[in-house]
Amino acid sequence: MSKSKVEEHLNQKSDESSNNPNKLQFTGNWFIDAGILGFVNLMEEVYGWDLKELQKESEKRAKAVYYWYFPIGYICHVVRERQTKEGLEKREQIDSIISEIPEAPQTMNEKDIFERAWEWIINNEPLIEEKEVKRIKMSWAGRYRILTNFPLFQPRYDLKRQKDIFMSLLGLKEIEDEILRYIDKATSKFLPSASDFPNISFTKSCITMEDLFSLNSKAPIFILTYPLAFISETLDLFGYQIMFYSNELAFTYNVSKRLKLYLKKASERDYKVDIFRVTWNSIIDSVTELESLWSLESMYLIKIKPPKGLRQDLDEVEYIGIPKLQASILVEDPIREALNNSVLINKDLRVWVLEEFIKNKSLYDVVLKHVSYCLREKNERNIQRKMSLYALAIDAKIKENNEIELFSNRFLEGFRSLVNEIKDCYSIINLYAINISRLFDNEEERRQIYYSLISALKKKNRIAFVNILLKKFLEKAGNKEVSRLNRFVFENIIPNDISWENYALALVIGILSFGGGYVEEEPED
Amino acid sequence: MLRKNQKIEVEEMKRKYWQIMDEMQNIFRDTSDNYRQKLVYNLLNAVKGNNQKEFFWMVLRALNTRLDKPEVTRLSEEIGRMYPLSSSEFEKLAYSVIMGIMSVKSKGGDKNE
């Protein structure tokens, strides 16, 4: 992404955030942010508003969104989700209730709007349950059973008490219940419990509801919605739910949406799913759309297992962010497109080049294996030339620049110059790959030379490699390409102890390209 | 700081190899294609075997026939100062010499730029 675009986007962001207190945006606290994402998902599921529309609605008529649409939507959705297959009839009833949710009343204060909403809820029979007491059974069940101990869900609490708690959470009533004031394991199972930390019963929790209000005026609402941030499509496949989290709401929302879609498709087609690959596919699509470079640097996959009985375990939080260096390279369209390819490195083994790059593995090794495999199969035409040359250029420049210090000029400028170096390097090796392909126009001659060159590369024997090449150049001393190639070898292979193999392999790919009909691009310069 | 010094040293060495290559090109400018081809072939074989003694013996013998060229004295002194070399340094110097000879324009072919 160009510098101006980044700045434009940043300015736009800061303007928006300062002007609109009701704008939904992440706080930096992942738990509250999960609640925000869950809130967006809830509103989308019930009312069909996507993030953009919800942002618009919550800026234009915040009161209606938070005190009318949210309580009604939340209760309807939870009660609906609680119904198992046997409760199909009730599910349908609730679906019809959802489709008849009236428009929010206008020109009223928050409290009156909520009162009306509550009245509407309790007048809908299917939402109410009457056993010991008359109440709404709204604890999360089934796939969302990760928030179960919250006071709102207690079986003893009747409608009046549930309403009071709801009002406290919406900030419409002072918090009286101690259990609501102190945030502990009853709210989030990620917090310690009294059995883990015996002194909690003396000190209560370190986090109070007031703390949450100071973080975000709607934070308590987001306590209720955080289970909805998790993607449950993975539950059957892996036994855990996941949530993708980055520091930007739009990016996280987009990736999660795509992730759900990919997982759904995969499960429908009975594909073997690789969470890493699926997630990264979603990320790449979203990066292209939103140009969120900064988000790439801090991304997490949070995995949780559904509770078994009373056990509620946090399964794993996996950091999947990539270093600044990789992120800077990845946002460049031509580079990302080139790397976003799967290549064969063995008969049944394909490697996703982008994955290797993200995992910080050597791209040179991937290209060498890919080229060797194609040669073994006598199928030089299958060599992915553009991907290979880009991968070699990236690998070479990373090796040559691996001593970049933290907070050095290059670090601070976001590796922009490195990206330019990579592009230049690609242009150069592409140019010389074309030059050398013109030199060896005889099929038999090419076959003779490339096997020995690959063999020298595998043995990391620079002398053997250069000797083979120079002897061939000597035979073609009159050719105008020879002197150019001589200089290339002298500049990039002989004095270069760090990345000579990358340049050498680029020449071999050039030799293999001739006559294959895929010298697809002329050099850019 | 050490890294900076190392970088400067590497750059100086690179400059030195470029100079050696240019001088070799000048020294062997008037020789025949056949002579140079044979010489390069033998030198390449010596590099392949990492045989410094044989390599320099061949280079000095060739230089001895070109004493009329002003660069010969400086180059011989330079080589004398550097000898013996580590195998990595030898590789770089040897290829500078060889590629210098190779880059002389071929009488039958195109001009070298």
Strands, helices and their partners?
The complex is a heterodimer of chains A (525) and B (113).
Chain A: H1 3-19, H2 30-47, H3 51-60, H4 62-82, H5 88-99, H6 110-122, E1 129-130, E2 134-135, H7 159-169, H8 178-181, E3 182-183, H9 200-203, E4 207-208, H10 209-215, H11 219-225, H12 234-238, E5 241-246, H13 249-268, H14 275-290, H15 293-296, E6 299-304, E7 314-319, H16 324-330, H17 333-339, E8 342-346, E9 349-352, H18 353-358, H19 363-376, H20 385-400, H21 409-412, H22 416-439, H23 443-458, H24 462-475, H25 480-493, H26 500-513
Antiparallel strand pairs in A: 1-2, 3-4, 5-6, 6-7, 8-9
Helix pairs in contact in A: 2-4, 2-11, 3-4, 4-5, 4-6, 13-14, 17-20, 19-26, 20-22, 20-26, 22-25, 22-26, 23-24, 23-26, 24-25
Chain B: H1 2-27, H2 33-48, H3 52-64, H4 71-82, H5 87-102
Summarize this, please?
By secondary structure, chain A is mostly helical. Chain A is built from 26 helices and nine strands.
Write up this protein.
The complex is a heterodimer of chains A (525) and B (113). Chain A has helices spanning 3-19, 30-47, 51-60, 62-82, 88-99, 110-122, 159-169, 178-181, 200-203, 209-215, 219-225, 234-238, 249-268, 275-290, 293-296, 324-330, 333-339, 353-358, 363-376, 385-400, 409-412, 416-439, 443-458, 462-475, 480-493, 500-513, and strands at 129-130, 134-135, 182-183, 207-208, 241-246, 299-304, 314-319, 342-346, 349-352. Chain A has 525 residues and is mainly alpha-helical. A three-stranded antiparallel sheet of chain A has the order 5-6-7. Chain A has a two-stranded antiparallel ribbon with strand order 1-2. The longest helix of chain B is centred in the N-terminal third of the chain and has 26 residues, at 2-27. Mean pLDDT of chain B is 84; it is low at 109-113. The interface between A and B is medium-sized, with 24 and 28 residues.
